[in-house]
Amino acid sequence: MSYLVLARKYRPQRFQEIIGQEHIVTTLKNALKSGKIWHAYIFSGTRGTGKTSTARIFAKAVNCLSPTADFEPCNKCKNCIEITQGDSLDVIEIDAASNRGIDEIRSLRESVKYVPVSCKYKVYIIDEAHQITEAAFNAFLKTLEEPPSYVIFILATTEFNALPTTIVSRCQVFQFRPITKNIIFDRLKFVVSQEGKTDKITDDALQLIADTASGSVRDALSLLDQILALTEIHSKVDSKLLRQIWGFTPNEVLEKYVELILNSEIKPILDFVEEIYTSGIDFIQLSKDLLEFFHKLLYLKSTNKVETTYNLEKFKDKFSTTHIIAYIQQLLQLVNEIKYTEFPKLVFEIYSVKLTKQYLEINEIIKNLGMYEEKQKIEKETDNIKTISEEKLKKEQVLTEKTQQTQTTEDKSIESVWEEILEKIRLEKPLSYPILMQSKLCFYDDTLRLFLPNKYVKTMIEQHNLNLEKILENKLNKKVKVIYDVLPKENIVLGEDQPPPNIPEGVKPIIIQPKKPKITPEIEKFCKAFSGKIISSQNDKN
Ligand SMILES: [Zn+2]
User: Fold this and answer.
1) Which class does domain 251-361 fall in?
2) Which of its termini does the chain have fewer beta carbons within 10 Å around, N or C?
3) Distance 407 CA to ligand 1 centre (A)
4) Which residues have a beta carbon within 5 Å of ligand 1, which is an ion?
5) CA–centroid distance, residue 117 to ligand 1 (Å)
6) Which sequence spans correspond to the domains of the chain?
């Protein structure tokens, strides 16, 4: 006897055997109960969710000669048997993928005119209905608008949005849900027990099949077909064996890798990558499996429950949600990048170093954020105190201003004046600010010599008309000559590498080095952790 594949052998024959689509089964049964049968239905949903099976059961239910009390087909009468075997002349299955043109639809329109041979209803099940051409749909529309009373159309599709609205508006639409992993697992367990193989296939193997089938019972049963064949040569099939056969990364490899990330040391993880490489594990698959690992871990953190073959509990408290999300983002990039590279090992190594370093960096950031929040709280409290003493402060300010007016501006150093000028430029001439901020200065004999990195920048700053001489005169209360100059070489430090050029002999100038943006260690860590860089800094005074 030839082997009947599981998906066919266990194809549901009654509504109650349809899994995961209770909402649809109930509505269809209610229609049968009330006798209000539509002439056109759309069954929409991803593959393997039971669309065609439900269509066939419905075709039997409307034509069954002795349906059960709850409107199930009897599966015993002549009509039921013929439909189940695919021999009925009144239940016609059309694959629209290969019959999509106007000619096929015309012949369908012709055949609709003939009354059923032995059934009450003539049922047309059109699979992959979205493949029908626009012209053919137009030709079909008329039949759909005024079908003979004995005709039912069921359009099954995986791409509901590809159907014309003119068609959709004339049909009752059922949306089939993807089958959850738990339901698939239960179904697999049932089939395995029916096949008498419960002792040969472990639950974690079935769990892995359910994970891999992505919502399709048919795919899950096809995988189970392969595994039943394996039980002939292996005394027991478990997830470890399956991972090996399907080329998945063994769980212990994944878990060790993740442990090494937690250790935050670069050398051990690179040694381990070398070990992985020599053992022949595929880096592309490994990257995908790591992504899946952290995806499951995120589920566990968020819902406290997840079906998996990984030992996640061990890692649950060691990673924060922030860690996991950052890792998932990195791993998504890795999975994308590693597909196209000629150097998968190198790419994997780079990401391994990143992931390892990131663990500590994120820890640090979280710690600092905690401190930052604390600081904010204290500052808020201080603010309240400030408001009380504000009036007192104001009085003091008036006093200080008066004193300042009497003071000579001679006391002001060129350094502090330059700070004030930079601030003024920042607000009034924002384009010049970054140039001036990074330029080097010499001040001697009432002369300010500004050294710019090159001629181009010099011309640019001259065109900006900064009126520096006037500003300096106001600030220092004396005339100052401003000279724009160019450094003989970029990036030299005046006064250290060499004495400033073009300065009269015997003169000791005051040198002002370029102002650097203020970068705190926290900001530096942030930049590293998120692979960013500082473009500008708004608050580099004080
Ligand atoms: Zn029957």
Assistant:
1) mainly alpha
2) N
3) 110
4) 64, 73-74, 77, 80
5) 16
6) 6-175, 181-245, 251-361, 412-512
